[in-house]
Specification:
Chain B: Keywords: Coiled coil, Cytoplasm, Ubiquinone, Ubiquinone biosynthesis. Chain B: One of its GO terms (biological process) is ubiquinone biosynthetic process. Chain B: It is found in: Cytoplasm. The structure holds two protein chains of two kinds. Chain A starts with a helix and ends with a strand. Chain A is 49% helix and 23% strand. Chain A has ten helices and nine strands. By secondary structure, chain A is α/β, with parallel strands linked by helices. Chain A has a domain of 163 residues: Vaccinia Virus protein VP39 (Rossmann fold, 3-Layer(aba) Sandwich), CATH 3.40.50. Chain B is of the alpha+beta class. Chain B folds into two domains: 111 residues, Nonspecific Lipid-transfer Protein, Chain A (2-Layer Sandwich); 88 residues. Chain B is 63% helix and 14% strand. Chain B is built from eight helices and five strands. In chain B, helix 6 packs across helix 7. The longest helix of chain B has 37 residues. The chains are: A alpha/beta, B alpha+beta. At the A-B interface, helix 4 of A face helix 1 and strand 2 of B.
Chain lengths: 256, 207
């Protein structure tokens, strides 16, 4: 009964890329990845996606329906691409909260936004998506772009997002997904496992982090599974839009 | 995605142009938060314009509510963009406007009043000596082309109206239209007088 090995064996595990790790270690391992890539995150995004990530985020903004005076939460906001655009749209009477669990990413994002003159209606909060430190029914829009796959308990995170949304508020999840064409899937696999770690090695001298990125994308739920998870969490009218042949999908759900 | 990429490219180019005018961005900032929906009915195409302090945002989708919706065929939209007398075009039957028309007119006015500082942009690329020389030559060429075009238009109009008599001249046409209007008015009066006389005769017969 008191054997400590039993306690260790009983701890549930989760995936970290293709590895299985105890749940308590995943957040730490993900944090290490993002501490490592934070400084060159924007450059790597442009190189690896060929600039397409800007179009994916642009489409996310278009489907957000954000208006002047709205309150927006940008979870895993990283270097602040979405926050910068939301900040313009909500105006002085609105507010955008850039939340990220990783303080290195948050610092890079804050410096970058201040350098671009984005201030006044933006707050920076270090927060865990599973336990958002905000009141109930507080935000008009919540977004999480390329962040959900790094969360240990995705169901808890979705429920937490639902809680902080106002009734009628929208959640937008932008995330890598499953290519709809098998041929494209094969080409994308070759690209992910050959080119991405190589680019990571050349640009940020860190092939492992980008290998994790490729593996974590494969372990993330596909379009229909994520849709089901959002419905189970309590979202209504959940839809998704495939982009670039399903390599990326934008899921959208409303809080009833 | 292709549409989004094209709009992103167009937006980038347009905002670079807007930055060449010293007053455009502060004027656009006053319209920040407004959403204009432009629906081209033939061919079917929808474009959303969102002014802000950094320029104009162009979007193919917008799930939020638009403050003003303009529906028109492509030809009318082009005419509207080019013409200075926008109100007349907005009242034409194929054009419909819903919502806050002041926002649309304010945006159109900003775009029409653009005075782009080409010389400054040229000087960034060519240097402070070459830019004014090139700009002066370009301005001279543009002025000469404008004057030549005006002169050609006037000569062509004179030839068609006065020498070949293919078309009726503007003054002659206006004089004829005035005569036709007078004649129509006289006919209306005559008809009214005949009707009154007929009515008088009918009532005296009955008596």
């Amino acid at each position: 009964m008191n054997d400590p090995r039993k306690g260790r064996e009983a701890e549930p595990t989760t995936h970290f890329g293709y590895q299985n790790v105890p749940e308590s270690q995943k957040a730490q391992k993900v944090a290490e990845v993002f501490h490592s890539v934070a400084a060159k995150y924007d450059l790597m995004n442009d190189v690896l996606s060929g600039g397409l990530h800007r179009l994916w985020k642009r489409f996310t903004i278009e489907l957000s329906g954000v208006r002047r005076g709205n309150r927006v939460l940008d979870i895993a906001g990283g270097t602040g691409d979405l926050t910068r655009q939301f900040s313009r749209l909500v105006g002085e009477s609105g507010e955008v909260v850039l939340a990220d669990i990783n303080d290195s990413m948050l610092k890079v994002g804050r410096d970058r936004l201040l350098d671009k003159g984005v201030a006044g209606n933006v707050r920076f909060v270090q927060a865990d998506a599973e336990k958002l430190p905000f009141p109930d029914n507080h935000f008009d829009v919540v977004t999480i772009a390329f962040g959900l796959r790094n969360v240990t308990h995705k169901d808890d995170a979705l429920r937490s997002m639902l809680r902080v949304l106002k009734p009628g508020g929208r959640l937008l999840v932008l995330e890598f997904s499953k290519p709809s064409n098998p041929l494209l899937g094969k080409a994308y696999d070759a690209y992910s496992f050959a080119f991405m770690p190589l680019a990571g090695k050349l640009i940020s001298n860190d092939a492992d982090s980008y290998r994790y990125l490729a593996e974590s994308i494969r372990m993330h739920p596909d379009q229909e599974t994520l849709k089901g998870m959002m419905v189970d969490a309590g979202f209504e009218r959940v839809t998704y839009h495939n982009m670039t042949g399903g390599i990326v999908a934008l899921h959208r759900g409303l809080k009833p | 995605m292709i549409g989004t990429a094209l709009l992103a490219g167009a937006e980038h180019g347009l905002n670079r142009l807007l930055r060449l005018d010293g007053t455009a961005l502060p004027r656009l900032a006053r319209l920040a938060g407004r959403v204009l929906e432009v629906r081209c009915t033939a061919p079917e195409l929808t474009l959303y314009l969102l002014p802000n302090a950094d320029g104009l945002r162009l979007a193919g989708h917008w799930l939020g509510e638009a403050d003003c919706t303009l529906r028109a065929p492509a030809a009318s939209l082009l005419h509207l963009a080019a013409s200075r007398r926008k109100t007349a075009i907005l009242h034409s039957p194929e054009v419909s406007l819903e919502g806050d028309s002041a926002t649309l007119l304010a945006l159109a006015e900003i775009l029409q009043d653009l005075e782009l500082d080409w010389e400054y942009e040229l000087s960034r690329w060519l240097g402070p000596l070459a830019a004014p020389l090139l700009a002066g030559s370009l301005q001279h060429a543009a002025r000469w082309s404008g004057q030549s075009l005006d002169s050609l238009r006037q000569n062509l109009a004179d030839y068609l109206a006065e020498e070949s008599h293919t078309l009726v001249g503007r003054h002659e046409a206006e004089a004829r239209f005035a005569e036709v209007d007078d004649l129509r008015l006289a006919m209306d009066r005559l008809e009214a007088r005949i009707a009154r006389l007929a009515h008088t005769l009918e009532s005296s017969d009955n008596a």
